[in-house]
Structure formats: structure tokens, C-alpha cells
Amino acid sequence: MAFFAVQFIYRYFVVSGSIYLKTFNDWRLVLWMTVPLTGGVIWGFLTYFCLYPDENIDNAIKTFLLENFDWKVEDVSYVGSYLYRMNYGIDLRNLIGMTAMLTIMMLSILTIIIFATKCFLEIKNYVKTAQKFSKKLNSLQNQLFYALVTQTLIPIILMHLPVTILLISTVLSIDLGQTSVLVSVTIALFPALDPFPVVLIVKHYRFAMMSAVSTPVVKFIQRRLDNPV
Q1: Which among 6, 52, 61, 77 is placed 20 to 30 Å from 124, CA to CA?
Q2: What are phi and psi of 85, to 5 degrees?
Q3: Of 115, 165, 166, 144, whose CA–CA distance to 10 is shortest?
Q4: What are phi and psi of 83, to 5 degrees?
Q5: Which residue from 65, 66, 60, 64 is spatially nearest to 87, judged by alpha carbons?
Q6: Are 159 and 109 spatial neighbours (Cβ–Cβ below 8 Å)?
Q7: For this UniProt entry, which segments traverse the membrane (predicted)?
Q8: In degrees to the nearest 10, what's the CA dihedral of 207, 213, 215, 218?
Q9: Phi and psi of 19, rounded to 5°?
């Protein structure tokens, strides 16, 4: 998720013509790539040392797994948190892990929102400027603006929001039940849906896609008509 934060920083640098854009074109690109890498290492560290399975979590989830999925807890590999222990209150290890993960999530979301907003403002200025020039330039800037809005909402809705809700529900000891499985579905949908805003909203890309899809279909139909079975 830190990768998407870096992606929006890059988009802002491109749109605004920032002098920092050149940091993505030389050896400093490696430094930018260390941001998501570091986030992934920290996330893995927290998972391994703070959210590993134990007997208390096994006892807490075994009935749920058996009743809803017909799985035995011994046959399931998982990572998770069980903050409120009946014997000794809040588990400090789990609390540290969940707090750190929520912090990483919020930093990623805030970075996306801040730089997406900056992009919107820059593109709005372009749209106002484009109105003084050709209709084609004005139309293109509007298309890019709406594509950027949509591409901002997709990762927030499909990735950040579901995972944040899942983490917060754990902290608040709210049982989401089978609904929690939807997080895996929404995350899996993201790579497939992310390119669509640009492809569908920007007219030239849309026409190119329709042409690429329709041409083989038309040829197939023509072959069938020319050579009926």
C-alpha cells in the first residue's frame, strides 16, 4: 500500500512539473522504491513477532471456523490478533502490532489523499487554462481529471478502507464473521479494475480498446459467415 502512496507523489510531481520529478529518473529512484520495501518489511516484522498464532487465539476462533467453514483450527495457517484476553486483560504484543499496522495504513491513506488533492487542484488549473485554447485540449484535461478522481477512489475503496475496517474491528473486538472474507476479494479485484478508469474515460484509449476488441470479433463473424458449417 505504500507503493500507491509513492505512485501518487509521482503523479503530483508530473502534473505540477516539480523539480523533484528528476529524482524518479536517476539513481534516487532506488530510494523511492525503498519506501514500499521498508513498509513491507515492517509489516512482515509486525506479523511475525506480534500477530503469530497462539493457544488463546486458537480457542477463540476454532468454533467459528468449524461452524462456518467446516475447518479444524489445527489445519489452518493464520496470523491474527486477540487483544482482550480473559485471564490477563489486554495483550500488549497484539496491541503494539495492531497500532503499528493502523499507523502504516493511515500514513498511506493520508499521503494518497494529500497528493491526490494537490493533483486535482493542478489539473483544475489546467482545465481553466485549457478553456482559453482549443476544445480538444479542454476535453482532454477534463478526461484526465475524472480519470484521476476515479483512480484515487479505487485503491481507497477496494484496499485501504476494507483493511482499515478489519483492523479497527479487531481493536474494538467486533466480530465481522464471514463478512471479513470480502477483504480478500476486494484486494484481489484491485489490480484488474485499476487500469479501467484511464482506459474507459480517456476517449482515445477507449476507442483504441474498442477497436482492439471489436476487430477480432468482426473477423470471427465474417469467417463464420464465409464458411458456414
Answers
A1: 6
A2: -90, 135
A3: 115
A4: -65, -45
A5: 60
A6: no
A7: 29-49, 95-123, 144-169, 181-202
A8: -120
A9: -65, -20
Per-residue pLDDT tens digits for 79-110: 888 887 766 778 888 889 888 888 888 888 88
Distance, C-alpha 11 to centroid of its chain: 16
Cell of 116: 491526490
DSSP 1: -
Q: Which residues contact 15 (CB under 8 A, 6 or more apart)?
A: 119, 122, 123, 126
Q: Answer whether 192's CB lies under 8 Å from 185's CB.
A: no
List phi, psi (to 5°) of 44: -65, -40
Instruction: Mention every residue, 6+ apart, whose C-beta is less than 8 A from residue 125.
Output: none
Burial class (CB in 10 A: 0-12, 13-18, 19+), 48: exposed
Q: d(Cα 58, Cα 51) in Å, to the nearest integer? A: 12
Q: Which of 114, 121, 187 lies closest to 154, judged by CA?
A: 187
Whether 15 contacts 53, CB under 8 Å: no
202 CB neighbour count, 10 Å cutoff? 17
pLDDT tens track for 152-205:
788 888 888 888 888 888 777 777 777 777 888 888 888 888 888 888 888 777
- Mean model confidence pLDDT for the chain: 81
Tell me the three cell numbers of residue 121. Answer: 487542484
